[in-house]
Write a structure and sequence with these properties.
This protein is α/β, with parallel strands linked by helices. The protein has 2 domains: about 170 residues, Rossmann fold; about 70 residues, no CATH class. It is about 40% helix and about 25% strand. The chain contains 10 helices and 10 strands. A 6-stranded mixed sheet has the order 6-7-8-3-9-10, sandwiched between helices. It has a 4-stranded antiparallel sheet with strand order 2-1-4-5, covered by helices on one side. α3 packs across α5 and α5 crosses α6. The longest helix is centred in the middle third of the chain and has 17 residues. It binds adenosine-5'-diphosphate (ADP) and magnesium ion. The site of adenosine-5'-diphosphate (ADP) has 12 residues, from β2 and α1.
């Protein structure tokens, strides 16, 4: 590791019984990176995100965020260190409105919860922040809609707003374009491209056009192992990668 890495995984493994979903994976992500992780279905990509965000525990290995060992830290402590994730399976409150979902995340970040909500000044600040976030993800007119009434693409945009509400330094996006129309994917790609440089992005995505448009670094995983990390051009040119992944029609889920 250099001092510059925001995230470092050292020999990280996750077993489910005797099955090695992840096997001795090394990975570094530098601050400001637009780093994509690709690989066939079952490669261990989502498991990797679970280990980084803390929703899953590691079987072996060490995970460092900004040089600090977070391997045994619970999710909320990692969020406080700037790690935020959107998950492949939505974790939104479906019966609440768009604004309420973002507000809850903003209040959680402020550490005030509903106590802060009772203070009128804090309330105004939180609402203003929530509106700003919704504008940033392209949902400026949908604040009063119930989440259940949103399109699939709008929900994914909202998930990004909820993740950004925690003011992350490292944003983990697990297949954000899954199930999106081409127009929605294009909008999401723009949104991610427009994120400020302070937000480092680690993106799992099977839409390779999106990957090659956004990413400055690409890691290929296969059967729980790290296969290759390089520039998009290096990864595209790798015959090893082509035979493991790019040459196949398979997409991940
Ligand atoms: P990817 O996101 O790359 O498609 P996953 O990380 O979801 O892959 O899964 C990697 C492998 O680990 C798969 O074979 C999957 O079936 C297995 N796996 C994931 N979660 C569990 C679990 N909770 N119990 C048992 N096996 C699991
Ligand atoms: Mg997955």
């Amino acid at each position: 590791m250099t001092d510059l890495d925001l995230l470092e995984l050292r020999q990280v493994s996750r077993h489910f019984g005797s099955f090695r979903a992840l096997d001795e994976v090394d990975l570094t992500v530098r601050p400001g990176a637009r780093h994509a992780i690709i690989g066939p279905n079952g490669a261990g990509k989502s498991t990797l995100f679970g280990l980084i965000s803390g929703t899953l525990s590691t079987t072996a290995g060490t995970i460092l965020v900004d040089g600090q060992d977070v391997t045994r830290l619970p999710v909320d402590r990692r969020v406080a260190l700037g790690v935020a994730a959107t998950f492949q399976h939505s974790s939104l409150f479906m019966q609440e409105t768009v604004l309420e979902n973002v507000l809850l995340a903003v209040l959680r970040r402020a550490g005030t919860g509903l106590g802060g909500w009772r203070k009128v000044s804090a309330r105004a600040t939180a609402i203003a922040q929530a509106y700003t976030l919704l504008e940033r993800v392209g949902l400026p007119t949908r604040h009063d809609a119930q989440v259940a009434a949103l399109s699939h693409g709008e929900r994914r945009q909202l998930e990004v707003a909820v993740a950004l509400a925690t003011e992350p330094r490292l944003l983990l996006l697990d297949e954000p374009a899954a199930g999106m129309s081409p127009a929605e994917t294009a909008r999401l790609t723009e949104l991610i491209a427009a994120l400020p440089g302070e937000v480092t992005v680690l993106l799992i995505e099977h839409d390779l056009d999106m990957v090659f448009e956004l990413a400055d670094t690409v890691t290929v995983m296969h059967l729980g192992r790290h296969l290759k990390t390089g520039s998009p051009d290096e990864v595209r040119a790798s015959t090893e990668v082509q035979s493991a992944y790019l040459g196949t029609k398979e997409v991940s889920s």
